[in-house]
Request: fold
Amino acid sequence: MRGSAAVIGGGVGGLAVAGGLLRAGWTVTVFERADGLPDVGTGLGIWPSALRALDDLGVGPVARERGRAQPDGAMLRPDGSLIAALDVGRIRRRHGEGVLLLSRPALLGLLAEALPAGTVRFGSPVEDPAVLADGYDVVVGADGIRSATRAAMFGDRYPLRYSGMTAWRGTVSLEVPAGGETWGRGRKFGMTPQAPGVTNWYAAVAAPQGYRPSEGDLAALRRWFGDWHDPVPAVLGRIDPAGLLHHDVHFLPALPSYVRGRWVLVGDAAHAMTPDLGQGACQALIDAVALSQALAAAPDVPSALARYDGLRRGPTQRMAAMATRAGRLAQVRRFVGVRDTALRLALAFGPPG
Reply:
């Protein structure tokens, strides 16, 4: 089947859907509110299943060329003692490929490069997706955690939920040999090598929704994490306040469907999850391929969207539930020994590759 699709949102899921549908012979227009692609952003871990999705989109080789293999890492306590090792080699042995580290701008860039000029209409926000309904065979909501498409489909019946954690993130000009996370009482600090000489970092603290430290973000981060093991203090010392991002962590409750009529949701618009498993971008890529293949193979739009919903809703909602449980572990302030045991067990299985 071929047809026309409007994709609302030019992030990872939206650009990937556009690429998949164009390869299947569809006509596609992407509506993106930003004026262009970002040139700065934090790092992403692309797991083997998402790398296979990039292969299906024809950009896997470019991604491997521009990314770097994630090295082994560790989950540590604030004094530097080991909770559990992060064995990337085990992932490679299980799936034939490890985890690829790629910055968000790099991933968006390679997905955009695969699209014909003019496919993405930058500076084109869609506040009311209904205005597109009559002009396209399918309207794809790839418009993120605060999706206007989802609101048009379900109203306010499924509001975002606060996870209990507020988070900061950014990059610093410092190279660390390996990534991982350090878990304290109700807070954690993570680092990931992003590029030569650049490290992606993030911090999360259990706090009331809307919490803002009175002394300022950077001063609070240094108070909470400044006496933790190396290289955490060195990372804190390199943070540029101008590039410091702070936001409460929310997630989306399970939706009854990702489809309504000819409207369909992908990525965070469908299953926004906490970042604790590092799977948001990966699941958006897999969504995009599943939707593109369903629309290419089915005889009509309703059966294609039903197939997509059947393929992706269950797995993504299970992944989101796993991420929520992992996030709750990070909020523990008492019985951290029990928490560390639970964390070791969780890492022994890990998310699907």
About this structure: The chain has a mean pLDDT of 94. The chain has twelve helices and 16 strands.
